[in-house]
Design goal:
It is built from three helices and eight strands, in the order H-E-E-E-E-H-E-E-E-E-H. Helix 1 packs across helix 2. It is an alpha+beta fold.
Length: about 190
């Protein structure tokens, strides 16, 4: 069942896509990774705030002061999932804490951009909005303190191969890791 917020966002994006006159086809294989990265092996890696190993994946976490670029002003955390064989295959992003109104506006803005780039968004099984083949997803989450965050993920062309090796060896699925809140040590 689609929530009222998701219906509002989808309707708004459908109007924007129609007004734009064209909708690009869903994810082509040559779509670059966000934040200036490229899918596959990484040549240069900015120093992360935290690095963790999980099965065949190294998670590089960047928060506020160590973010690779300032592409999104409301960014709190960026995670790079770098697979042992396939290289960079998942980039996830979390916004800073936002009010309900700010989160709704930011979600609408980002979904509209997604519609322009990839076509119509569809609800995923996890309650996120996703674009065809699940390579890009976005979600608004409520926090215990009453704030909200926007979470977004982009996946590379060899993500499924990496996840097939990762998932049996880990306590969490690579596909849903981006939905979990990360608490950094101080």
């Amino acid at each position: 069942m689609i929530s009222e917020l998701a219906r509002f966002i989808l309707k708004r994006c459908a109007v924007l896509a129609f007004a734009a006159g064209t909708v690009l086809p869903a994810f082509a294989a040559d779509v670059p990774a966000p934040f200036g990265f490229a899918w596959g092996p990484l040549d240069k890696i900015p120093k992360p705030s935290l690095a963790l190993k999980d099965a065949n994946v190294t998670v590089l976490a960047y928060r506020r002061e160590r973010l690779p670029v300032n592409e999104l002003a409301d960014t709190e955390v960026v995670l790079l999932d770098v697979c042992k064989k396939e290289g960079l295959q998942q980039v996830s992003w979390a916004s800073k804490a936002l009010s309900s109104e700010e989160a709704t506006a930011k979600l609408a803005q980002l979904v509209a951009l997604g519609v322009q780039k990839y076509g119509d968004a569809k609800p995923s099984g996890e309650g996120a909005l996703g674009w065809e083949n699940g390579r890009t997803e976005i979600l608004r989450v409520a926090e215990a303190d009453g704030g909200y965050r926007i979470l977004m993920v982009n996946r590379g062309p060899d993500f499924e191969t990496c996840a097939a090796e990762h998932d049996p060896a880990s306590d969490q699925k690579l596909r849903t890791r981006w939905m979990r809140r990360i608490d950094f040590p101080n």
